[in-house]
Design a protein that fits this description.
Layout: E1 11-16, H1 21-31, E2 36-43, E3 54-58, E4 75-78, H2 90-110, E5 115-119, H3 131-145, E6 150-155, H4 168-180, H5 196-207, E7 215-217, H6 218-228
Parallel strand pairs: 1-2, 1-4, 2-3, 4-5, 5-6, 6-7
């Protein structure tokens, strides 16, 4: 390394949920980020392409404990999530939205991983009467109990973007939110829909910088992204 050159970090990241909308955006960012030399994916299905940085583990995500010897990294990005329409069985729904992130956090703690980022949802509350919000709230509490030093819980509002699978109810909600976004101002701004690349970019920034909040809602996610990626706020 020549005089005056800054040695790049050589980090390894684990991504859970790389085949999803936000996880896919996150993966592309990490692959082009020179601070990362290896990206370990733990997925149920292959992402369908190769890259020198990629290390794919096709696994049963509901049994992550089995793969803990390979669950080694500097940072874990958990982008796991399902919907009632996609997973109508309430027990399976909880095994995914609660079980996978919490299992990942526990393994991270055991393996000495000091940075853990997970996508939750706005309205997450373990005391909520709404099943979706309650499970997200319970997940947040369980993740925090693991005591990972740098834990960040992102609480986005409705996530925009085009999914491969068609969900009519979600599509209609997104169209409605596009209109509603114009009147959601001031304290209501946090309820505006949010793009997946904004969440992904904020996650990457948080993994590499200190931040004084653990739970970060949509408006703060957008501020982080637009402050550090030189873009204008469009939603």
């Amino acid at each position: 390394m020549g005089k005056g050159q800054i040695k790049l970090q050589e980090k390894t990241a684990i991504v859970l949920g790389a085949t999803g909308l936000t996880g896919g955006n996150l993966l592309q960012m990490l692959l082009t980020d020179e601070r990362y030399i290896k990206i370990r994916l733990f997925s149920r299905n292959s992402i369908g392409f190769t890259h020198p940085k990629l290390e794919e583990h096709i696994v049963d995500l509901l049994d992550l404990e089995t793969y803990k010897t390979n669950f080694l990294a500097d940072e874990v990005f958990c982008c796991i999530g399902t919907t009632k329409a996609k997973t109508p069985d309430t027990e399976m729904y909880k095994r995914i939205d609660f079980g996978i992130p919490v299992s990942a956090a526990k393994i991270s703690r055991i393996n000495g991983i000091e940075t853990f980022l997970v996508i939750s949802a706005m309205g997450a509350n373990s005391k909520s009467g709404v099943n979706y919000n309650r499970i997200k709230g319970e997940m947040e509490e369980a993740v925090l109990k693991c005591g990972i030093p740098n834990t960040y819980i992102l609480q986005p509002s409705l996530i925009g973007g085009k999914r491969e699978e068609q969900r009519m109810g979600e599509w209609l909600a997104k169209q409605f939110m596009k209109i509603l976004n114009f009147v959601l101002v001031g304290p209501l701004e946090k309820f505006r829909s949010i793009d997946p690349e904004v969440i992904a970019g904020a996650m990457v920034w948080l993994a590499n910088n200190s931040y004084d909040q653990v739970k970060i809602q949509s408006d703060e996610i957008k501020k982080i992204y637009h402050s550090h990626f030189n873009t204008s706020v469009t939603n």
